[in-house]
């Protein structure tokens, strides 16, 4: 597990990174990819990409003092895919463990297509191990990327994994069939709820968190919009769990891979 820090303050970054190092983590990832406007407008996440000098200053101050491994996750830019060209020489000057590239701009959020041509150019110019991130949702999309970029050092799953918790297994086996899919999903779901009950203060917080997950879970269900609508109207965790049990028994999970 690699913790990720969203910051533009080297002292704050180092304080948290050193604390995580003391807890046993060996690599910290710096988030230069978050596209959300409330973050980017504060020059955090992808909002820092138009300011390569600030990225350089941050990396210089962090790398000279941090004793763990540091990696970076980035987008192509905030406003333009050209912004990454000014950042890559800076990344190359520092001892980064890896650079993870999501080939969209920040203002794209998660809309439109990933720019595989821009990613190809980035992967050739970055001297560190390169990891691809973005729109790996199916076996077909993954195989297409593997064929296009055989030399890539790794692959990161994002929203595709939230929508389909079985996706890593499918990719590893190159097979869409999953044994006991409904049973395993229910067990996974219940483990998630029970884990949150141990961490959050009260069932209301757990219910809110689980409602957020169904935005993704529902993408693989035949009647996903109806399921989400039922779940969003729920005001009690008990009733929520009853609805989930009902839809899992009534609905065939139809994941398009």
In one word, what is the shape? Answer: globular
Biggest beta-sheet profile: 6 strands, parallel
Give the termini separation: 27 Å
Secondary structure class reads: alpha/beta
CATH topology term of the largest domain: TIM Barrel
How would you sum up this structure, described in words?
Helix content is 50%, strand content 12%. By secondary structure, it is an alpha/beta fold. It folds into two domains: 153 residues, Alpha-Beta Barrel (TIM Barrel); 70 residues. Strands 1-2-3-4-5-6 form a six-stranded parallel sheet. α1 packs across α3, α3 runs parallel beside α4 and α10 packs antiparallel against α11.
Gist of the model:
With about 260 residues, the protein is an alpha/beta fold. The protein has helices spanning about 10-20, 35-40, 50-65, 85-90, 115-125, 140-150, 160-165, 165-175, 180-200, 205-215, 225-230, 235-250; strands spanning about 5, 25-30, 70-75, 100-105, 130-135, 155.
């Amino acid at each position: 597990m690699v913790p990720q820090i969203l910051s533009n303050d080297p002292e704050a970054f180092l304080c948290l990174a050193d604390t995580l190092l003391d807890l046993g983590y060996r690599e910290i990832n710096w988030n230069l990819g978050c596209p959300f406007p409330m973050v980017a407008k504060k020059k955090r996440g992808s909002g820092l990409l138009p300011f390569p000098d600030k990225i350089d200053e941050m990396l210089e101050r962090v790398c000279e003092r941090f004793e763990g491994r540091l990696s970076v996750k980035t987008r192509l830019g905030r406003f333009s895919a050209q912004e990454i060209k000014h950042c890559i020489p800076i990344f190359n000057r520092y001892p980064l463990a890896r650079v993870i590239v999501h080939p969209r701009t920040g203002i794209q959020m998660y809309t439109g297509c990933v720019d595989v041509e821009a990613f190809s150019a980035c992967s050739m110019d970055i001297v560190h191990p390169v990891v691809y991130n973005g729109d790996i949702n199916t076996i077909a999309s993954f195989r297409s990327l593997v064929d296009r970029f055989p030399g890539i050092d790794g692959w990161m799953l994002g929203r595709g994994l939230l929508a389909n918790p079985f996706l890593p297994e499918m990719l590893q086996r190159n097979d869409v069939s999953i044994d006991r899919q409904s049973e395993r999903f229910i067990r996974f779901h219940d483990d998630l709820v029970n884990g949150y009950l141990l961490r959050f203060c009260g069932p209301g917080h757990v219910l809110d968190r689980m409602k957020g997950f169904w935005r993704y879970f529902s993408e693989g269900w035949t009647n996903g919009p109806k399921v989400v609508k039922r779940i969003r109207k729920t005001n009690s965790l008990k009733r929520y769990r009853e609805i989930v049990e009902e839809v899992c028994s009534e609905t065939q999970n139809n994941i398009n891979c």
